[in-house]
Amino acid sequence: MAEGRNPVVLYHATPAKNVPSILKHGLIPRHGGGNYTDEMTTIGGVYGATTPREAYSIVREIYPDDQIAIVEIVADALALKADEDNIIYAIQKAIEREARDNPEEPQIEGIVDAVKDELEESGIKFNQMFISDLYDVLERMIDDILEFHSWDDHFAWEHGADLWLREHSDDVEMLFSNTWMDPKQK
Questions:
Q1: What is the DSSP string of 68-123?
Q2: What is the pLDDT of residues 63-107, one digit of tens each?
Q3: Burial level of 42, CB count in 10 A (0-12/13-18/19+)?
Q4: d(C-alpha 55, C-alpha 44), whole Å
Q5: Whole-angstrom Cα distance, residue 15 to residue 104?
Q6: CA distances, 166 to each of 39, 162, 163, 170 (Å)
Q7: Is the pTM of this model over 0.85?
C-alpha cells in the first residue's frame, strides 16, 4: 500500500521470520487461502489493523509460538477494502434477524436495511452499486441462505462464511469490491 491523498497509519502483524522478505519485496497480497488453520477460504490481501495491539492479537492467535513483528503501513484511506468477513457477517446477521422477525416471509428490503445499518456501525462504507448487487444476490440466494441458517449449529456464522466464499465467491467479491473501510471512524 502506498501513501495517498488521504494518508492513514495501519499496522500489519506477521511472524518475525517474514521481515527479511517484506523488507526486500514489500507486503505482497496473497489471494485465496488464509493464515488460519480452519481451512476457510478468503479473498486474500494484506490485512491492516488500526492499532498495533489489534494486529498483534490477531497474529498471536494464528502463530502462538512465533516471534511477531509489527509493520507500520501508511495507506490511502480511500483505497482500503473492508474485511470480507465483516460483509458476510453483516449479511448473515441481517438474514437471521429478518428470518426471526418475519419467519413466514422474510423480506429482502428488511435484510438490505439491516445490512446497511450493520456495515455503517462497523465503519464500512459502500456505494449504490453495493446495494443494487446485494438485492440481486439476495433475490437469487435467499431460499438457500435461509435453509442453511435453519440448521441448529453453534458455529453457523463461521460455516456460513465458508459456504458463501467457497460456493459464491464471485458474489462475495462483487460485493466486496464496492465497499471500503474508514479506519478513522472505526
A1: EEEEEEEEEGGGPPPPHHHHHHHHHHHHHHHHHHSSSS--HHHHHHHHHHHHHHTT
A2: 999 999 999 988 887 778 877 778 888 888 888 788 788 877 778
A3: buried
A4: 16
A5: 49
A6: 11, 6, 5, 9
A7: no
